[in-house]
């Protein structure tokens, strides 16, 4: 189904408004072309969405051999082009010049200015307040982008995917952005993630998550900004995130693209997901059928994927220390849930000293009680996962000397009741590891630790 308001006929997406004499002369010389149109007292070049074309745009190229022709010795056959991203529909400016001399000036919605040189390909985002494009050699052509349509491109109306030509950048297409650390007097860097909208805010912890677009690839990311209430206090936390998260690569652990440590805050750039387990109120989660059996398409995949993630962390000797529903993110892919563990703000290397941290409801007994003889190990996270599963599906949890499960109205495979109770064991050394549960209940699928 097409997105609401999507364009389905050939129409102008944006105009190139000339800003200097050379650009105005170029547009004047092209006045007979159908794509030169008059807006607000000025002739401009209109770039249309043309779904019957393989490239989806016209005019799409500027240069000696481009749709917009510039017959100058210093201009390449194709100097720059406008291309649709084949997967996201974002409009990208591509610099084809041998010297990569195209320059883009952005003014964001918050008023911050950004400059981009030598970028290869760059998103032209409707979220920006202003975009200026300058290209050429000894003579510069400068244009401003004026949007005529801000609704999503109708990718379904565009020519068949197999014959489309356009950008195919993914978040893995480019080398990861370097891990940045800015001192008090340090210069601002090129931060390639442009704010689109606020995703979530926590006033107590002074954290904000924004949905942003990666200007280099055309894909959306989440940027978590954490403000330090006491200057410098979060710096060590930011360092921990940088060291731990940049060394993790697992399909069920959220991927971090950049960790930026500032004097009084830090930013985490990560993959954008659909939400967390705290958001899931669908009927299949309210009333799962045959919970944890082979026929279960809700609880069993959740356990399997999170056990794989925890086993991988154990292999890396990392304790997450805050496994809870709000730190388990999900995305629906082809109708199925794909889960990822996130938020390594209080993660540490195992074994670790006895520090009380985490969220109380999902806190292992040795953490909550600050047991003096029990160092923290990766089995803390096993307890947190089991407690999260009980919370998600409304399973009763009775404490005391041991923890027992009250299935309530749910039908649970009996062997899983016993496994969950073991995972919730009071004594850490008697609690199974994530790898042991994988071996026992999933034939060792995805296990990376030694048996």
UniProtKB/TrEMBL annotation:
Q: What range(s) does the Protein kinase domain occupy? A: 174-443
One Gene Ontology term of the molecular function aspect? ATP binding
One GO biological process term = mitotic DNA damage checkpoint signaling
Coiled-coil portions: none
Q: Which residue spans traverse the membrane?
A: none
Reading the lineage from the top rank, the first entry is Eukaryota
CC terms in the record's Gene Ontology section:
nucleus
Name the PANTHER family on file: OVARIAN-SPECIFIC SERINE/THREONINE-PROTEIN KINASE LOK-RELATED (PTHR44167), SERINE_THREONINE-PROTEIN KINASE CHK2 (PTHR44167:SF24)
Record-given protein name = Protein kinase domain-containing protein
According to its UniProt entry, this protein's organism is Fusarium equiseti (Fusarium scirpi)
